[in-house]
Design goal:
Length: 317
Amino acid sequence: MLSEGSSFMKGMAMGGLFCLVVSLIGSFSLGGQPSVELHLHHHLKAPSKEELQRLPEAHKLELSQKVRVYCIIMVQPKGLLHWATAKDTWSKHCDRAAFYSSESAKALEAVDLKEQDEWAKLRKALKHAYDNAGDLRWFFVARPTTFAIIENLKYLVLNKDPGQPFYIGNALKSGELEYVEYESGIVLSLEALRRLVGIFHDEDKCPERGRAIWKLSEEKQLAVCLKYTGVYAENGEDSRGKGLFNSKAVGSLISASLARNPPDVIEGCCSDMAVTFSGMTPNQMQVMMYGVYRLRPYGHDFHDSLMFLPPEGSDND
């Protein structure tokens, strides 16, 4: 009898422990059960040339001057060469470029966040950018190994209202959670960032340090917090449906396309309006800078419908 009672108590204890574990896992699941309206993931496309050509000239001029981007570039002192290269190349085309570091560095200027944890550091950088954005309405988050063509980013969001919540990039899925890949760059509208900064104060929905049994990456933590505010990942594409945010360098993408489709390598590789290429060495970034901004066929007349002027006082190419 004693043995049966002991077995019963052990069973009760094990059952209670199992329920506790299930409860914990449920409370820290990817995305949880936020009380927001149902949103189906969709693809966000850049306008076509035909759409743009139909706009009045005055409207095109207004749009070209209206879209301005704050670049949030997350760096580490140990990656000084990548940091210096990003500063010397594509970031000059941002309307404002701010470098955020875990500690101060004598060689280059950055915002010292005094934080080692990657997610907590990203939160602080986003909050700092929001507080110091002035009249800038679009935000681009990148690592220094990413090369970005900011004019193409502006073209992607040209006819989008930053007063609406946009969270754009290379959208991926993990279980039920849709998120934008950090390595390829993340775009946030002012409204999306406003909502995000607001939920930073809610430790239950968006903890600074995370309390899950497993540790989520920064890109997934960001998606979880945004999801609680009704902001969802959107895949940035050109008017033909090609992705604009690339997780690899140009050389890798061309090699892969060559293996798949030798007769039409470029068509199978990348969009003409690509916004980012990632995982690049400093030398590759300098070559990209030459190819994208400096090399020009003499006498060729470009027929772009509008022009994005460089930031005032900029020394960009």
